[in-house]
Amino acid sequence: LTKKYYDDFDDIEIISNDKDLYQLLNHKVNMRISKRGLEPEKIFTEEELKKELDITPSQVPDLKGLMGDSSDNLPGIPGVGEKTALKLIKEYGDIETLLKNVNELKGKLKERVEKHGEEALKWRKLATIITDFDLPISLDDIEYKGFDEDDLIAFYEKLEFHTFIKRLEKNQTKETIKYTVLTNDDAIEKALDDDSFIILESFEDNYHHAEKLGLAVVINEHQYFIPYETLIKSKAAKTYLESHAFEKSTFDLKKMLVMLKQDGLTVNHVTFDLLLAAYVINPSYTKDDFKVVVANFDYQDVPYKEDVYGKGAKQKVPAPSVFQEYAIRQAIAVRALKENLLETIKKRKQTTLLNDIEMPLTTILADMEFTGVRLDQEALDTFNDQLEEEIKSLTESIHEDAGESFNISSPKQLGEILFEKLDLPSYKKSKTGYSTNIDVLKKLKDKHPIIDKIIRYRTITKLQSTYVKGLKDSLHEDGKIHTIYKQAFTQTGRLSSIEPNLQNIPIRTEIGRDLRKVFIPEADHLMLAS
């Protein structure tokens, strides 16, 4: 292509890391090559080749003929590497000239060139790119005419390439949604009716701390948004939410129930939860981002959450018009998908699972999350003091066994103490140092008394940092832990606890059982554990 269409372009760029293609470089043809890691890509030219290897493009096949190329299965001349090959090319220019002057060489190199010189010509021929044959394609055939956006999005969805979908959608301009912001009781009472689709919009993923922004409501062809400060003061909104006469559908009912309970409100007669319906159909469909969930059902008309609120440290609440429209788009999506999802669930005979198990369970879990788990803070502080005391004692004892002070939590320093100073047998070593993982330590248990102390030290420090500190950081003003029970998460249907994870509190060790004692029941209640 670079030869045939050479005169049709002012510049030609080859995008490749294949060094074979260096032979095509000239003042018009260059290569864009990628570097390792985070280094930026580089434009490689004929001048760069001269500077880097001190050869011309036409000498690239000679280089490969002499030194070979394992990736192309070219042996080259045995014992001739890149350094020697470049030296020979610099002196003789090409393989033919080298062979004519082979008597100028000495020793082993002379023997090798004499014996394998003809083979080197063959390897050079194989390494030479043929550029003088007829191509069955024309420029018109390969001209880039853009892509089919629907096909590409479908392909990205299949492979769950959501970042690529986001890039595509940033260039799209969605049609603006028309909606009415309801700010008083009269307007709310007139607007709200049966068979509504509602989304309680909030900022932050942990809804125990989230900033509540308002309620999006879609009824028939009407779209409304009620700011949260209006919602909690409105008698009409309270009546509507609590009414068993008005059927409602939503996404993540549990989240809505918990957030409303925080302000003394609740919602009744929610007959459909898109999150749970998606979970029943396929447990892998339930992700934190609403867009990712509905995309599984070929619904695209809603942005990604990070496109609305930002990502990481740049997250923030956008202008009201932005989050209001986002919430309404979610409510519209629930309406658009409800009938098809229920039909799919019915065909699979999963209606009972959704309506009689998952939906009632979500209200129970909401009550559990809102109620929280009591923590004996005094007992937790006492337990932490005990850990601090033992950590101090273990540190002193380990340093005494080692004959010096060092950072026990540093694998590098610990490795040097165990395997160099104490001369214990090492089982694994990498570029970064000796391995001191638990498997290695267990093999060394009988070799030195320091090992048991190190294992104990790790157990205690992990307990303190992960659980004691974690629990303290998770305490709410009411002195309780309010976790989130992920109902629509696991493939097997079991619950998962996050922020904090109450499922991983140790029980097999005595010290783990002591930690469990800081969890206490409400007055006149019992706490059961299995």
Which tags fit this structure?
single chain, flat, 16 strands, 530 residues, alpha/beta, 6-stranded mixed beta sheet, 3-stranded mixed beta sheet
Distance between the termini: 70 Å
Q: Which structural class fits the helix and strand makeup?
A: alpha/beta
Mean pLDDT: 91
Number of helices: 22
Q: Which term fits the overall shape?
A: flat
E-strand count: 16
Q: Biggest sheet, open or closed, and with what strands and sense?
A: 6 strands, mixed
- Specify the oligomeric state: single chain
> Within the largest sheet, what's the order of strands?
4-7-6-5-8-9
> Beta-strand level of the residues, as a percent range?
5-15%
Rg calculated over all Cα atoms: 35 Å
Residue windows where pLDDT falls under 50 for at least 5 positions: none
Binned, the helix content reads: 40-55%
Textual characterization of the structure:
- The longest helix is centred in the middle third of the chain and has 28 residues, at 320-347.
- This protein has 530 residues and is an alpha/beta fold.
- The chain has helices at residues 46-53, 60-67, 82-92, 95-100, 107-127, 139-142, 149-158, 162-170, 185-191, 228-231, 235-242, 253-261, 274-281, 290-295, 305-309, 320-347, 351-371, 377-402, 411-421, 438-443, 450-474, 510-516, and strands at 12-15, 29-33, 42-44, 180-181, 196-203, 211-219, 222-227, 248-250, 270-273, 373-375, 429-430, 433-434, 480-481, 484-486, 496-498, 519-520.
- It is built from 22 helices and 16 strands.
- The mean pLDDT is 91.
- Helix 2 crosses helix 5, helix 7 runs antiparallel to helix 8 (162-170) and helix 12 (253-261) packs parallel to helix 17.
- The chain is 47% helix and 12% strand.
- Helix 12 (253-261) links the parallel strand 8 (248-250) and strand 9 (270-273).
